[in-house]
Amino acid sequence: QVQLVESGGGLVQPGGSLRLSCAASGVIFSRVSQMDWYRQAPGGERAFVGRLARNIGTYYAPSVKGRFTISTDNSNNTLYLQMNSLKPEDTATYLCKMDHLGNTYWGQGTQVTVSS
Hints:
Blueprint (H helix, E strand, L loop, with lengths): L2 E5 L2 E3 L5 E8 L6 E9 L6 E7 L3 E4 L7 E6 L4 E6 L8 E9 L2 E4 L3 E5 L2
Parallel strand pairs: 2-11
Antiparallel strand pairs: 1-3, 3-8, 4-5, 4-9, 5-6, 7-8, 9-10, 9-11
């Protein structure tokens, strides 16, 4: 029923930009209380990137603050992660997470590679 699908990943040079999308289906989007982005490098643990909490605001990990921005498009139930000034250490699989009516849902992830 509930499905989150990430897209927008790819190969980009250091200093470049990407916009990731997380399209949600099977949810009442206005009832999604929290929308998060995480990332996981090969062999690494899942790390917090940023959060949009409804009626509260946004919060970012120090490593991405000032470079990444979380936003939504309520008309198509989509969460975005705008990524600017990308660094090689940003290379990872990026996953979205949403809390909806007491349950947590994860997407499958989209790969971002930052390399020259």
